[in-house]
């Protein structure tokens, strides 16, 4: 084997008549200035007289998992990725790309610029640029349609979802599947054998025609994809550029693609998406000193209701053995049935094999006996929201499990310090607040009590990673982060309802802003009786702040949400919300009794007040030290409450506003919110922050 010659982070070696270019930029071979220069330098050093083919591969597990997103914060520098893909496509010898690991974004664009694509069986291929606010900018929107056809290219680029190697091979994106899946001598030998026998010559995708598709069919597909994109601004641009592949020359279309890419990269949605991308990859908790997390293999979940069975399911799917405890035989049976039905649904949708379903169900141990927790590593309690009942349960658990077994509560609002105060070794007690449905919602609040140890927190974070959750660490405080933020948001929406806006008008305005669902639809889905009971507990202090009585009147009318067929909306068998004149009547009578003259509220005001309410509450949370990191607030809203990801979150928005504008907006919010409103400190937006003060 010839000794490799290095070129920065790209290596070139000669294997007989085959030149091998290897990208070497750990951990994922991302595209950087050095990598791009290295590729061009390697191409320039190849002896085309004694070489028949060139292999483009990556060191380690990946070819290239995309661009270095930090580069998008600055102006492009040469050589750009389009210059590199053009050089690959125009090179006089055939290029063979080895697609492996995560070959995404710029990595796939490199592969598309080559003449042949080989793939390992476990490779994933995709152009996910819309998820970070841009579109493919190095020919991807034009070469992919020429490889797989317009419909599939439109689906891949607008959705941003990667596909597996087997599918890529089936649709023609990959020319041949390799048999070796792991990096090593066998894989290298297979690649070189293919390159040595290849005689297909140059096959540039740019020279292929785009297979025609009926315009109406393509437009309908684009609209369906855009409806699922939840307003991602780059998705609509991506659809337009992809569909231009059949209408323009390759040169014209790639120029259009590049123009849109450059315009999008500095946009606020793109900056917001990059901000979240990096925030989500920072450690959610950093202990003050090195501590080894405890090993967890067996988890006990107490409570087989909707939340408990959902928690048990996502813990099962993470590979743990799970005890599911419930006193009621009927409730336990129902919980097990819910889990089995969810898994069966995954089998029917092709997301899981029947064998895998059976493996998971074999790890589920339903029981009515609390003694079953003996020997477990972690207990997660998900029973009724009653402090006294939870305290008794935790005292019983402490007498059954080992002294180091972690004891977690899924409470949404209760004081976890009160639960921990009578427990031996309270350092192991914490909150693990899942969001419903637990098996689908990504957010997990890890709640730190006064006594919770750093080892317990580190273990919980390791657990959350295995569950594939977005964990944030929060201090023990009413509503923690998520529910407290949402309570402020919902309260502001109720103020606007009182002032003259209808539930459907408020919902429509906030859905237009980008929320997954408006607040009154969410309330109906969750059930209005839960919040009603909580409001009744605050009756003694209600006079201290502005209080809207409309939600109570809705509940008193027997309208408890979707489960009763009526709440803020009326629901038929298809469960679709329909505005109900009865609700309009209840609201109108309330306003008349309170002497409130209804006024027209614009969509813009609805959106501003709702978002400012979230910003204001976020500032209060920062001031009280409830969060581990400021970005946790934005992560919580995006992953737990349907806040539009491409807007970044309330604190991201607050930073874009600037201090003076934010200060004026918070003053206006205080004026319209009335009695009892507590205004947040605008100066906290730019201040360095110490958690848990």
Automatic annotation (TrEMBL):
Stored Gene3D superfamilies: 1.10.1040.50, 2-enoyl-CoA Hydratase, Chain A, domain 1, NAD(P)-binding Rossmann-like Domain
Pfam families for the chain: 3HCDH, 3HCDH_N, ECH_1
Keywords: Fatty acid metabolism, Isomerase, Lipid degradation, Lipid metabolism, Lyase, Multifunctional enzyme, NAD, Oxidoreductase, Peroxisome
UniProt lineage: Bacteria, Pseudomonadati, Pseudomonadota, Gammaproteobacteria, Oceanospirillales
Name of this chain's protein: 3-hydroxyacyl-CoA dehydrogenase
Subcellular location: Peroxisome
Catalyzed reactions: a (3S)-3-hydroxyacyl-CoA + NAD(+) = a 3-oxoacyl-CoA + NADH + H(+)
Domain 3-hydroxyacyl-CoA dehydrogenase C-terminal: 479-571, 607-678
Quaternary structure and interacting proteins, as annotated: Monomer.
Top-level taxon: Bacteria
PANTHER family assigned: 3-HYDROXYACYL-COA DEHYROGENASE, PEROXISOMAL BIFUNCTIONAL ENZYME
InterPro entries: 3-OHacyl-CoA_DH_NAD-bd, 3HC_DH_C, 6-PGluconate_DH-like_C_sf, ClpP/crotonase-like_dom_sf, Enoyl-CoA_hydra/iso, NAD(P)-bd_dom_sf
Pathway assigned to this chain's UniProt record: Lipid metabolism; fatty acid beta-oxidation
């Amino acid at each position: 084997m010839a000794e490799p010659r290095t070129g920065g982070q790209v290596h070139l070696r000669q294997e007989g008549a085959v030149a091998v270019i290897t990208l070497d930029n750990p951990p994922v071979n991302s595209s950087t200035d050095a990598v791009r220069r290295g590729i061009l330098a390697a191409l320039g050093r190849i002896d085309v007289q004694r070489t028949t083919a060139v292999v483009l591969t990556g060191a380690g597990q990946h070819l290239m998992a995309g661009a270095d997103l930090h580069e998008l914060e600055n102006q492009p520098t040469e050589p750009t990725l389009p210059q590199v893909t053009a050089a690959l496509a125009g090179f006089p010898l055939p290029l063979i790309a080895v697609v492996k690991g995560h070959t995404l974004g710029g990595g796939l664009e490199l592969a598309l610029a080559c003449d042949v694509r080989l793939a390992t069986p476990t490779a994933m291929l995709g152009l996910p640029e819309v998820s970070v606010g841009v579109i493919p900018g190095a020919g991807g929107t034009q070469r992919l349609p020429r490889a797989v056809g317009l419909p599939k290219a439109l689906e891949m680029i607008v959705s941003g979802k990667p596909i597996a190697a087997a599918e890529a091979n089936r649709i023609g994106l990959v020319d041949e599947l390799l048999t070796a899946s792991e990096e090593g001598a066998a894989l290298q030998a297979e690649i070189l054998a293919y390159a040595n026998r290849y005689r297909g010559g140059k096959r540039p995708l740019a020279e292929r025609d785009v297979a025609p598709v009926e315009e109406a069919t393509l437009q309908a597909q684009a609209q369906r994809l855009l409806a699922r994109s939840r307003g991602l601004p780059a998705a609509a641009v991506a659809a337009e550029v992809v569909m231009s592949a059949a209408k323009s020359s390759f040169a014209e279309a790639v120029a259009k693609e590049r123009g849109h890419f450059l315009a999008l990269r500095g946009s606020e949605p793109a900056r917001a998406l990059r901000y979240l991308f990096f925030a989500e990859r920072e450690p959610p908790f950093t202990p003050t000193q090195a501590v080894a997390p405890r090993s967890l293999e067996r988890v006990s979940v107490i409570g087989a209701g909707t939340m408990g069975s959902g928690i048990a399911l996502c813990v099962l799917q993470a590979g743990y053995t799970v005890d599911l405890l419930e006193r009621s035989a009927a409730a336990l049976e129902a919980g097990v049935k819910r889990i089995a039905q969810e898994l069966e649904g995954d089998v029917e949708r092709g997301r899981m094999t029947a064998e895998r379903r059976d493996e998971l169900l074999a790890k589920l141990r339903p029981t009515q006996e609390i003694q079953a927790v003996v020997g477990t590593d972690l207990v997660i309690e998900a029973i009724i929201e009653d402090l006294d009942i939870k305290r008794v349960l935790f005292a019983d658990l402490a007498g059954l499990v080992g002294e180091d077994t972690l004891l977690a509560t899924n409470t949404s609002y209760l004081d976890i310090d009160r639960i921990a105060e009578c427990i031996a070794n309270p350092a192991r007690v914490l909150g693990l607040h899942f969001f419903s449905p637990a098996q689908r919602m990504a957010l997990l609040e890890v709640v730190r009590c006064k006594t919770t140890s750093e080892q317990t927190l580190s273990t919980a974070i390791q657990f959350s990673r295995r569950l594939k959750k977005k964990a944030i660490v929060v201090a023990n405080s009413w509503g923690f982060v998520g529910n407290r933020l949402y309570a402020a948001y919902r309260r502001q929406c109720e103020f606007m309802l009182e002032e003259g806006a209808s539930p459907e008008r408020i919902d429509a305005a906030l859905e237009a802003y980008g929320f997954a669902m408006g607040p009154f639809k969410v309330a109906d889905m969750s059930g209005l009786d839960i919040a009603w009971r909580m409001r009744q507990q605050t009756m003694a202090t209600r006079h201290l702040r502005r209080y809207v009585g409309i939600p109570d009147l809705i509940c008193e009318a027997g309208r408890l949400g979707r489960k009763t067929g009526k709440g803020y909306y009326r629901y038929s068998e298809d469960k679709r919300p329909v505005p109900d004149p009865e609700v309009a009547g209840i609201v109108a009578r309330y306003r008349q009794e309170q002497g409130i003259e209804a006024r027209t509220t614009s969509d813009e005001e609805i959106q501003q007040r709702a978002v400012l309410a979230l910003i204001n509450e976020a500032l209060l949370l920062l001031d009280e030290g409830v969060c581990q990191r400021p970005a946790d607030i934005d992560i919580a809203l995006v992953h737990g409450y349907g806040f539009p990801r491409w807007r970044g979150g309330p604190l991201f928005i607050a930073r874009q506003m600037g201090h003076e504008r934010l200060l004026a907006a918070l003053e206006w919010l205080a004026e319209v919110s009335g009695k009892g409103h507590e205004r947040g400190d605008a100066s906290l937006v730019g201040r360095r922050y110490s958690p848990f003060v």
